[in-house]
């Protein structure tokens, strides 16, 4: 203040510029309107697939035909003998997948993070790569290698003298494949918890004479309960809503799970009962909502497991002697048998006419599968469609998520808690139900019918599904930025929107880039919602690969899958090398 007065008293010196003034609309500042608009937009995006689903569950005929109220849909659903089997199969698959994935994640995180194992850091990085690969692509690789006519299956059967040494087309086979696809989620939580843990508790156990294995069993594993429980709930939920693995594994042997039930009932049935389809979706949404609520309760009660303090000491790796080679063999065996061989088999199938242990692969090398993909505009168009959806959708989703984070964490908006809850709600909406809900919404609302079968509808559905991931990628960075920067901008006359565009936006650039890469990866590998929303001109890579597989063209499927993996790898590696971004962070 004294400096300003001194400036004004100097002769010939002009007064400093007055603080900027902003127009008000209906007596309210523009920041309030923007915050309210973000909240309304989020509500519309989240409720758009949910409300029609609930209404459809109460109507036997399609909504767009003027459905008649019929609450008997739930009665018909529960009296259907097949639906009980669907529930049991789905729960069994989710339980087995969760057990396999969590046990592997805990074992590998302890071995690679806290034990002196040769090549531990390299293998730890390799374990994260399945998170960038679509479960559909991984399932293709598993069938090519471990399926009834798979390369490893035939080779093992020839050695063992049996036709089929294992049965991949079963619920345990589905669970193993799904566990490999989802294990990186649990490993990420468990490994980060071990890296950040304070080793003073372990040192105290050592002073009491505890050996390394006893310290691991009595100290480290109990302290890992929060990440174990939280990741287990995430994997359980993700395995319930999975569509690709149940379709590829269950359909040939008539094992029906929830995702394939909705797919068959909604697309393959000539005269579907839309009321039963809606009722099944509502029940599944209610069950997932309960699981998400349990996730929140798990996190709220995890403070008693805090292991990171202000005086944390450096984490030291255990030397367990010769047992480290057992840990090395377990980690290497998982990498080779889990994602390694299936992806290698997928690549080999893409560059060969036929893949069999009875034929030398070098004699059947061919680029014919790629010629099939690049020789038809329909197939190359799906690659372009996926890129358009992933790039434009990634930018739009990141922008919406950034606004949602700022409203929820850096504003005085009265409903800011509701904004955060709404932005995170889509994590309880499976892709299948997301596609069905938007399909019914587009047909039910006349103004939205031009969106039917367009890339825009697919982009919106994929974006809503990826919104929680984008929000979670941006929110930590916003919390790390001190609020005194906001106060300094406000003291200079900037309003809420000006503070964001001139100050916070530049500081959030790394988080926004990480969010975009994460959303891009999710969108380029997504396909469940597109099954119900796409037409012949708006197919994406996943739906095209599924159609090719159903027609028996496994070579073209392998080639298209390799192209998808290559696109994802280029984006992730470029972001990591050029912009120092970890997309899974």
Q: What's the quick description here?
A:
The protein is an all-alpha fold and 585 residues long. It is built from 26 helices and no strands.
Explain this structure to me?
It is built from 26 helices and no strands. Helix 2 crosses helix 19 and helix 6 packs across helix 15. The protein has a domain of 250 residues: Orthogonal Bundle (MetI-like fold), CATH 1.10.3720.
The number of helical elements comes to: 26
Please name the CATH architecture of the domain at 37-69 and 369-585.
Answer: Orthogonal Bundle
Sheet bearing the most strands, described? none
Distance between the termini: 45 Å
Bulk shape = globular
CATH C-level class of the domain at 37-69 and 369-585 = Mainly Alpha
Percent range for β-strand residues: under 5%
Parts with pLDDT < 50 across at least 5 consecutive residues: 1-17, 301-312
What portion of residues is helical? 55-70%
Q: By CATH's scheme, which homologous superfamily of the domain at 37-69 and 369-585 applies?
A: MetI-like
Strand tally is 0
Q: What is the CATH topology descriptor of the domain at 37-69 and 369-585?
A: MetI-like fold
Could you state the order of secondary-structure elements as H and E? HHHHHHHHHHHHHHHHHHHHHHHHHH
Element layout with pairings:
Blueprint: H1 2-9, H2 30-57, H3 73-79, H4 81-114, H5 120-126, H6 135-146, H7 151-160, H8 171-196, H9 200-207, H10 212-223, H11 225-240, H12 244-250, H13 258-268, H14 274-300, H15 323-350, H16 368-375, H17 377-409, H18 416-424, H19 431-444, H20 455-480, H21 484-491, H22 496-507, H23 509-525, H24 528-533, H25 541-550, H26 554-578
Helix pairs in contact: 2-14, 2-17, 2-18, 2-19, 3-14, 4-5, 4-8, 4-11, 6-8, 6-12, 6-15, 8-11, 8-12, 9-10, 11-14, 15-26, 16-17, 16-26, 17-18, 17-20, 17-23, 19-20, 20-23, 21-22, 23-26, 25-26
